[in-house]
Amino acid sequence: VVGVLIELDTGHHRTGVRTVRAAARLASTARRLANVRLAGVYTHEGHVYKASPERIPEVCAEAADALRTAAAECETEFVSVGSTPGAVSMAGEHAVSELRPGNYVYLDATQVSLGAAAERCALTVLTTVISRPTAVDAFLDVGTKGLSGDRTPDGRCGFILGHPEAVVDWCNEEHAHLRLDATDLAPVVGDRLRVVPAHACACVNCHDRAWLLRGDEIIETWPVSARGRMT
Ligand SMILES: Cc1ncc(COP(=O)(O)O)c(C=O)c1O
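A: This is the predicted complex of the input protein with pyridoxal-5'-phosphate.
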């Protein structure tokens, strides 16, 4: 017997049934199938990424309400939600049985720009300064092949760990431009800097391995098992 969850679209407008009625219809179909057990309802409240930080609790409350109604109509109790910016608000919503934040384990420059994380993100890409053409420009030996092509909502590729005002504002495949006009950071060619990427999930998948650090010491190396997999 396979347990299934019904996905309700609570506003992200990606996958999932769009109405509680459609969810209820699907639930009654699922109940008629041999070897299928209706286990609950779920959503990815990804539209929180487009909400201002002040509106996130309201967006989450609306999504949780919709899921609660869907669960009742589907005669099930398990309610699963998932997003990093919404995780704190959703944790306070009664009737939510499960949180599925993913980005949460590392955090990134997008979460910082949404106000969902402080500047201390766990995932960084170690880079070397390869050019200092002017006092306010530097180039790093990483680009979209190492950071991914994703940008923060305000259009950045990342920032330097410990120096959030040192912004990677654009990248080519193998070069990243570091803007230094708003920071005291004055690196020289050869210096190593740790870039917090715009999107940790996509960034990890650009690499074969992740190195786990305690301080500056490498304590473990993890293979990126989904690397290169398309499904
Ligand atoms: C279905 C689903 N659940 C949970 C998540 C986790 O959300 P986040 O990346 O905000 O942690 C995602 C992210 O894409 C998702 O697609």
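The longest strand covers residues 125-134. The pocket of pyridoxal-5'-phosphate is lined by residues 44, 82-84, 100-104 (CB under 6 Å).
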